[in-house]
Design goal:
This protein has 133 residues and is mostly helical. The chain is built from 6 helices and no strands. Helix 4 packs antiparallel against helix 5.
C-alpha cells in the first residue's frame, strides 16, 4: 500500500517536471534598445466633439442653451424657451447620447408648462399615495 502511494507520488512528480517548460529569456539587440517608441496620438475628449464643432456648437454651448431653456420655463417665457430649444433640437442627431434625453425631457417640460399656462389646470407632479399600499 505504501509502495503504491510512493509510486503514484513519483509518477505525478515526473509528469509535473516534464510538463514544465523552461522559458528562454528574450535578448534585445542594441538596435532594438535604441529605437524610440512611436508617439501616441492624443485622445479625443468626447466621440461627438468633432461632429458638434462641425455643426457650430460645442457641448458646453449646448449645455448652456439647455440651462437657458430651463430658466425660461421657470420664468414662464415660453416663446423664448421654445425658440432656444428648437435651435438645439435641429442639431439633436449630432449631440452626444448623454444630452439627447435632456432635450426630450425639456421639450416635454415646456409643452406641459404651456398647457398648464393656457388652461389654468395644474397637474400634480407626483401621484397621490394610497395608505396601506
Amino acid at each position: 500500500m505504501v509502495s503504491t502511494r510512493m509510486a503514484a507520488v513519483l509518477v505525478l512528480g515526473a509528469v509535473a517536471l516534464v510538463g514544465c517548460k523552461k522559458e528562454e529569456p528574450t535578448v534585445m539587440t542594441p538596435a532594438a534598445r535604441r529605437t524610440p517608441a512611436a508617439p501616441v496620438a492624443p485622445a479625443v475628449e468626447s466621440p461627438a466633439a468633432g461632429v458638434m464643432d462641425a455643426v457650430g456648437m460645442s457641448e458646453a454651448d449646448v449645455q448652456a442653451k439647455l440651462t437657458q431653456v430651463t430658466e425660461y420655463i421657470k420664468d414662464k417665457k415660453f416663446d423664448m424657451a421654445d425658440a432656444t430649444l428648437k435651435q438645439v433640437e435641429a442639431k439633436k442627431d449630432s449631440l452626444p447620447a448623454s444630452l439627447q434625453p435632456k432635450v426630450d425631457s425639456l421639450r416635454k417640460m415646456l409643452d406641459a408648462a404651456k398647457t398648464t399656462s393656457e388652461t389654468g389646470i395644474t397637474v400634480p407632479s407626483t401621484m397621490p399615495t394610497i395608505p396601506g399600499m
